[in-house]
Amino acid sequence: MKTLDYDLADEQATVALGTALAGAIRQLQGQGFIAYLNGDLGAGKTTLTRGVVRGMGHKGNVKSPTYTLVEPYELDSWQVYHFDLYRLADPEELEYMGIRDYFAAHCCSFIEWPEKGRGLLPQADVTIDLAYHGEQRKITLAAHSSTGNQVLAELEKIV
């Protein structure tokens, strides 16, 4: 499976990579896509997702779903969901919110703290690891499916 590594100098570089990732995801033409986001608090998970959501066509604010668990963005061709499971007390809570409905065709889901939903979340197409590297960030994207390989191959052409 394909893996890509990038150094991100600042917040703008993180948003720009998210925007490029959105361009790669749009090439899927309606297939579903799931990404797990891993990293410490403040590592850039929400910042990267902001770039993706805007790159998918959203014009408004992109906020962290820390208290709501999920922020939906209904766009022309896609529904983008940004999950933050940090405050999830029990994975069973995901059942009550109808978690399976979020993973259909034309749905793109970015899930922060996916380990909190273990056993109820579908496999990720791509895992994204963000880590502090001095004042900068290092990001590693790893494919776990043919869809993930396709997205990373497109991303590599863009970046």
Strand content: 25-35%
Structural class: alpha/beta
Report low-confidence residues grouped into runs of 5 or more: none
- How many strand segments? 7
Helix content: 25-40%
SSE run: EHEHEEHEEEH
Description:
This protein has 159 residues and is α/β, with parallel strands linked by helices. 28% of the residues lie in helices and 28% in strands. The chain contains four helices and seven strands, in the order E-H-E-H-E-E-H-E-E-E-H. The chain has a seven-stranded mixed β-sheet. Strand 4 (79-84), helix 3 and strand 5 (107-112) form a beta-alpha-beta unit. The protein is globular. The two termini are 19 Å apart.
Supply database-style keywords.
159 residues, 7-stranded mixed beta sheet
How are the SSEs placed, and which strands pair?
Blueprint: E1 3-8, H1 11-26, E2 33-38, H2 45-55, E3 70-74, E4 79-84, H3 92-96, E5 107-112, E6 126-133, E7 136-143, H4 146-158
Parallel strand pairs: 2-5, 2-6, 4-5
Antiparallel strand pairs: 1-7, 3-4, 6-7
Helix pairs in contact: 1-2, 1-4
